[in-house]
Amino acid sequence: HRDYWISCLVNPSAGREWEWGGDRFEAAAIPRSILVVGGGPAGLEAARVAAERDHSVTLVEAGEQLGGQWRLAGMQPSRGQILEHLLWYRHELERLGVDVRTNTRFSAEDVVAHGASAVVLATGSAPSRSGFQHAIPEWDVLPGSEAAALSIQDVIAGAKPAGRRVLLLDDLNDWRGAGTATLLAEAGYSVTLVTSAAVVAGQLAMADADGPLRKRYARAGGKWMTSTVVVDWNGGRARLRSTLTDEESHEDFDSLVVASLPDPVRELHDDVIASGVEVHQVGDCIAARKAIMAIYEGRKLGMTL
């Protein structure tokens, strides 16, 4: 009804059979050595497809496990299939002989010294704690939040908000904010989700996942305030403003957790480019988006290397 083709989150060939010939790969005319920096969904897919095409692939990941923020997403309520997807990637890379190195952080010098004929930068994005809100675009940072806020990624990774009363500022309106709010509510926190959107988790409506998630959050005792922005965070006191009436109110909380677009990690790009190495970028290091775009870009690049 929205007049675009149907595709698949984890298999971008679905819906593109006329263009890509399905989920099949032709061997490269000249096999090369490929270095992939970053083990999130974009890097994993680029490495897998390049290896399917008979390239010799090395993937380095700074963290202990593959997946990046995609793994964190799989730790939210009702999203365990993401972890199964990452396990599938691990098995596929083993089958294809990809040299996977976790706990390995490469500098630009390391990238050049590796000697690959092509480098794929899939360094992803870093959590934002700025409290930026699209409904107040003139503010880059929520006043008072600079040193106080946790990101949703911090929380999913195990950080504990101080106290019991948590304000979750959701500027994403999808699984990331509402799912983390549900995780906290089910852990016993008193959570209030504040969003400038008209409805919580509205971005999930097309998948029919919004209603069940709101119901689960409500059953865990979660509260929400829609069409609302946070205009100040002062030592645990939040000043709130309705985007409909401009009426302001104050509420006290113990902790602030923000769900904002992450910041692209691009530190390696300029230095590697300057070295003369063939470099490609995929995923969130270009711009922070969703997993479906990261996997699509990884697939598309892997087919052209």
Instruction: Give the helix/strand class.
Output: alpha/beta
Which regions are unreliable across 5 or more consecutive residues at pLDDT < 50? none
Instruction: Supply Rg.
Output: 21 Å
Task: Specify the overall morphology.
Answer: elongated
The secondary-structure element order is HEHEHHEHEEEHEHEHEEEEEEHEH
| Adjacency order of strands in the biggest sheet | 3-2-1-4-15
Tally of helical runs = 10
Q: What's the rounded overall pLDDT mean?
A: 94
Regarding quaternary structure, how should these chains be classified?
single chain
Give a description of the structure.
The chain is 30% helix and 21% strand. The chain is an alpha/beta fold. The strands form four sheets. Strands 3-2-1-4-15 form a five-stranded parallel sheet, sandwiched between helices. Helix 8 (210-219) links the parallel strand 8 and strand 9. Helix 2 (41-52) runs parallel beside helix 4. The chain is elongated.
Give a brief description:
The chain is of the alpha/beta class. The protein has helices at residues 17-20, 41-52, 69-73, 81-95, 108-114, 152-156, 175-186, 210-219, 267-274, 291-302, and strands spanning 33-37, 56-60, 99-101, 118-121, 125-126, 150-151, 165-170, 190-194, 223-225, 228-234, 237-242, 248-252, 255-259, 263-264, 279-281. The chain is built from 10 helices and 15 strands.
